[in-house]
């Protein structure tokens, strides 16, 4: 954490192989096999996700960016001077740079990310680019336990930044718990700046998770690759197929990996059996109406103070305060 040599080293709360293995095996033993989507983001997965973010069909990043550009002056005013910024899922750091360039005199930035490589690069870049900013990176799965290192300098209020609609990955009950966790970090006078994806034409949603270049398919299949490498498993990627669809009744997009045949896969001493056509559910991505999100937020101690959307109402950026 020391600023000598202009180097910052992330505090590391990453779960070990043991926990990864336990979650994989228990997920694959369920009647509907499933794997947690947080494990998508190893080095190649993070790179593939960055590629997804530049696809035309994947409307989220550009829509969110256009909203942020349109409302940044208002946001900077609401946040005020000398804020402490905490970002969950800082990724390649592109979004925070935009905020840092427009906020009034931010004091410190705590990026939290599961990818050590990205976190390390982003922290050192920001540390050099913004010499007055205290950068305090934390490498963690933020759905598990970890601690933040708070800055030495005094700050006005904590602002949690949770862009990209990552909240979409949580089922309703964990989503509520996660917002409660953030509300505790924000209390008494902090705020949450969050990107929330909205319900829209199902064809648009279908295209977003079935891009024509197959990047999303590669991102999904990479999870099996990661399990092969890190957990001594023998998934043959050719024997699985990316399958993604939007279910309007459940108001979420789901991604699966479908077994192309009856097969048995050795996985760290156990064998996982697949029927022909059986799937592993790898991700959910919930879509909200503004009303639905407001109701969820107000059940967690937050009050939605401001909502900005794009002209098509595809996405929203929201400013939530604790009451
Ligand atoms: C990062 C969770 C918002 O659900 O749209 C992109 C992840 N998955 N393409 C999403 C994702 C497939 C993304 N979130």
Features:
single chain, 323 residues, alpha/beta, nine-stranded mixed β-sheet, four-stranded mixed β-sheet, 15 strands, 25% strand, binds N,N,N-trimethyl-histidine
Overall strand count: 15
Shape summary: globular
Q: Show unreliable segments.
A: none
Ligand species: N,N,N-trimethyl-histidine
Mean pLDDT across all amino acids: 94
Level of helix content? 25-40%
How is the biggest beta sheet arranged? Answer: 9 strands, mixed
Q: Strand-residue fraction?
A: 25-35%
Task: Please summarize what this structure is.
The chain is an alpha/beta fold and about 325 residues long. Helices cover about 35% and strands about 25% of the residues.
Describe this structure in words.
With 323 residues, the chain is α/β, with parallel strands linked by helices. 35% of the residues lie in helices and 25% in strands. The protein has helices spanning 17-28, 43-52, 60-79, 94-102, 116-129, 172-186, 202-208, 215-231, 290-298; strands at residues 11-12, 33-34, 84-88, 108-113, 134-135, 138-139, 158-162, 191-197, 240-247, 252-259, 263-267, 270-274, 279-286, 302-309, 315-322. Helix 2 packs antiparallel against helix 8. It binds N,N,N-trimethyl-histidine (AVJ). N,N,N-trimethyl-histidine (AVJ) is lined by residues 52, 60, 164-166, 168-169, 209, 216, 283, 285.
List the helices and strands and how they pair.
Layout: E1 11-12, H1 17-28, E2 33-34, H2 43-52, H3 60-79, E3 84-88, H4 94-102, E4 108-113, H5 116-129, E5 134-135, E6 138-139, E7 158-162, H6 172-186, E8 191-197, H7 202-208, H8 215-231, E9 240-247, E10 252-259, E11 263-267, E12 270-274, E13 279-286, H9 290-298, E14 302-309, E15 315-322
Parallel strand pairs: 1-6, 2-13, 3-4, 3-7, 4-5, 4-6, 7-8
Antiparallel strand pairs: 8-15, 9-10, 10-13, 11-12, 14-15
Helix pairs in contact: 2-8
Bound molecules: N,N,N-trimethyl-histidine.
N,N,N-trimethyl-histidine binds at residues 52, 60, 164-166, 168-169, 209, 216, 283, 285.
